[in-house]
């Protein structure tokens, strides 16, 4: 019942987007369209909560994971379209923006609902195409065009690789359905050689849209995109890798592909974080952050922690789109943090608290494999947040409020994680292959090396080594030379072309 | 008066740009002088959080507007006359009177000594004035080329002398190697890293040693340059001036060209250069920042261009000019190509000369002037026909002083209609040259027009206990933000940040999307309730401070400033029981340009603080006593209060209401009673101007609140767009007119100004602020990509101090595209130069022009227009 309603609401949405494109339709139809775009995510949410389905339904695979992803992508689509109503008002491509946003987010949501691999490929292809189109919608602007072309090429490459991987898989197993391909029996036909091959192809196909090293260029150049488009891109497209790897988890084997993925992603985490450290443009900092976060998500996938990866992908999407949409507030105002007074005791409490929370977490989740990394991050973050919110600063009110915020954060964090766990438990492959201890140590090593080097460097800012690392990080985060223009000259073009008048006929 | 000139005069002036006396050799001591001369081509640019309008051409007012327009087109391909489409739109909307356009043409034809029959010339000019392009079929016709071959002996009246461009730019034009773009990219990178004010975790190493030194130390490791460039740059001198001289010498720039060469470089990225210039004016330690900037830029240019040196000679202009001229005659003057061979040499000369003079610039100039005259004519008709007869004396209940800002005009009009209220217009800093320091802040804001320097510092203070509590609450808010920032910058914590803060951010995002108005107001309210700012006192009494400006005023100063402010308002007698001093500020969300909507006369901040200071001073019994002896006697019953006019919402917010006398209380209740109606009326007017999706708004109040709170709104209000005139005169003159929010109004009564000092103060202060605002809007409309800041949607905030377009660009100056355009196709701001109208006898204006050379120059050179209304109601421009 709800399933039909969902697809019905999607069709209505598609229809309203087409209607909106017609120049005769009055512009305020946009409001109705945006209203309509709020329906599908709502119905997806209902489906998710009611757990009405967890089955194959025609070409669809409707498990909670699929509904969650659809809900998430469509919500982003709705929020961004709502935002665009006023933000883009007056743009000459106003109508097209809404149509393409609907197309991009709609097809992305359908992609993750499909059981048929061909359908998935088609929908994912349309999403990438829609995104490229969105970026080059401002055709007059050469810089945007160049960047769109470069991104489009990489997208096409990623899509082709995915096509090859899927074709290989279905040729070997003889099926095009997820549910049939990913059975043990089918996969046995693939052979270990084939598994490695397909895994490697999948890894390549996902690191491109996730903007991982060495394919980060497209995302860095797409700071030219309008703010709402960036929000969609960073929330709904870059994290597709997490979905793809989770869906294909049974194929993915813990060998070469895993190491390749961990090395590339680990490197990206460090480079991305480095970009945040040195870059001064707000949107570019966000791009650096996305690269790092996506690297972390892929590491989680590589370690078999698919549930964690999905949670990260979704929350990061919401987090990043919110940060993009409020990019106008990044102007610095003269608000200074009061000089810090901190006692050793308060700090020590933070350290102990972090340790306790980390260990507690480890025991609660029955820690194995990846949870070691989770526990470390959690413990570290707790003691870090404690020292900045509570330990530092003076006065009772300040400490009390800090403590309140701190506890609130921790509680909400717990609730959110539990909710996700309850919703997705059972549908996300968990602990299929436990990663080897050495792999975990490799990840920990990468993260700790990054932290230690960073800490050492920030204490030696006058060293030559610092200068060199600094400049390399700056270079890493800078856009391509073709996509920079000193002044947006396309606006000049607009003011010189115009309509006709005959003033002499008076 | 509006600077009409014959062309020979203008062309003659082109050659005599001020060239400093440089001998064959330039010594290091000349460089600072040359740089400061060259800096006339850019305007200082402050941080965007205190956006203050500045005329982009303030250093060029000693030249004619037209001359600067031609020069900018030549050197930087920037056109500061309105584009053809803009002019046509204005014509279609009826904002340009065709008769006046025709009159402008006749006037020009009259001023020329033509060698052609008048009717031939007139026909040609009229046709050309349609602003059509020449058809390309005609321009490429082979017959035309043949004809040119025969005619080329004719000398044209202008020499095609080009302005000096940067070598990298020339190189790009000639060979297509994108050197200028690369150079810009490098310079943008270094500038933003150096100027960073957003506290990135890792700042540019050694930046405390200054721009040039930090750059010099680092550039040898820059992976964006190659090995030989590293070697070359490593050997550069350690001092910026030496490096600049060395680079100029290496590029073979002759001493007399240096200033122009520096100008060309400053114009490449006027925003970043402007920020360097602004910084160099702030502290003596950074005095030489602009020199350092040029040293970095030109040294980098040398390193990049070295492999390509020497550049091929610039080719002289081919015959394309002749082609255009003859084609123009064929197209507009019905002079077929064959006819040229029948003309005598002197006739040919005459034809070509007319076509040269009547070029594209002149055509659009005539259009622009017709547009300006049309506006003036209509304004004149309205003002002279609607002179309001002074009413039978109903006693005035409340007197309100507003800022001259154009947004005050609709509010004043509505308020005056609503009851016995009298309003005044005065610059929104109320003549107080102060630096303000809000409670708990370590930063002080210079709350006065940017061309003035603050003299006093006024601090907000509260009782020690209340202050400590407030400070702790404030610090909590800051520390949450700060913790988020630094968790983002740590490798380990950043990875968990989405999980920790994601739920909160998504809640906020959903709330802002579903209920933009309510969510925004709730967040604002929560913040307000949490902070509970205690009631504060102002440090008005003189205190000596060791560092910086003295705090507060001495008794004489208090009296002086109050007297001056009352004189400027023209409020020296007939005080009503309640006088409201009203500053103004704005409300917008997620808007980097929020400060641009605040009071320009208060350096891009709300004028509320200044209003509070003035009202408090006016209530001081001591001040009143001394003023009373001086002839300004303020009745005991009269109370001054301070308010803030929120321009986005058109509300008055009370900032300072002391204990009121009985009469004042009555007046206060009276005005409070009518304010909701006034707001509603003004809001409805404001909403009708803002673009929307075609709904009629039932509740203007709710809708303007949506504009103020919605985080996706790009036009929270129109600001001062469409400003066009500045009227200095009594309110009686304009009271009956609906001036459409386009006019700055300054109160002035010439009868109280015998020696003309008030008038000259108004011209030197408020009128100059208005002129800068006007020209900034003008520039943002006619050259939105160069003097405006482009599209808001694709901007990114950089270094916390400004915005760039797309991936990286110049630090953008001026207003965004959305602040001057209704849509991509429809303009909102009409680019007209400010018309100053003075209500005074003729000899007042003559005296003013004789005494104020700077103003006289602005008028003569076409940077501002002047008109006057004499006491008999005669209008003269």
From TrEMBL, chain A:
GO cellular component terms given for this protein: plasma membrane
Subcellular location: Cell membrane; Membrane
Chain ranges of the NADH:quinone oxidoreductase/Mrp antiporter transmembrane domain: 114-391
Disulfide bond is among the record's keywords: no
Bilayer disposition of the protein: Multi-pass membrane protein
GO molecular function terms listed in the Swiss-Prot or TrEMBL record: NADH dehydrogenase (ubiquinone) activity; NADH dehydrogenase activity
One matching Pfam family: Proton_antipo_M
Keyword Nucleotide-binding assigned: no
Ranges that cross the membrane: 6-22, 29-50, 65-85, 97-113, 119-135, 156-176, 196-215, 222-244, 256-278, 290-315, 345-365, 372-394, 400-424, 436-457
Predominant place of localization: membrane
Keywords, ordered alphabetically: Cell membrane, Membrane, Transmembrane, Transmembrane helix, Transport
GO BP annotations listed: ATP synthesis coupled electron transport; electron transport coupled proton transport
Subunit-structure text: Forms a complex with DabA.
Family membership noted in the UniProt record: Belongs to the inorganic carbon transporter (TC 9.A.2) DabB family.
Family annotation (PANTHER family): INORGANIC CARBON TRANSPORTER SUBUNIT DABB-RELATED, NADH-UBIQUINONE OXIDOREDUCTASE CHAIN 5
Function: Part of an energy-coupled inorganic carbon pump.
NCBIfam families xref list: PRK08601.1
Name used for this protein in its record: Probable inorganic carbon transporter subunit DabB
TrEMBL record, chain B:
Pfam families, per the entry: DabA
Annotated positions binding Zn(2+): 403, 405, 584, 599
MF annotations from Gene Ontology: zinc ion binding
Membrane spanning residue stretches: none
Entry keyword set: Cell membrane, Membrane, Metal-binding, Transport, Zinc
Location relative to the cell: Cell membrane
Assigned GO CC terms: plasma membrane
UniProt main location, coarse: membrane
Entry cofactors: Zn(2+)
Membrane topology: Peripheral membrane protein
Entries under HAMAP family matching the protein: DabA (MF_01871)
UniProt similarity note: Belongs to the inorganic carbon transporter (TC 9.A.2) DabA family.
Purpose: Part of an energy-coupled inorganic carbon pump.
Subunit-level organization: Forms a complex with DabB.
PANTHER family xrefs: INORGANIC CARBON TRANSPORTER SUBUNIT DABA-RELATED, UPF0753 PROTEIN AQ_863
This protein's name: Probable inorganic carbon transporter subunit DabA
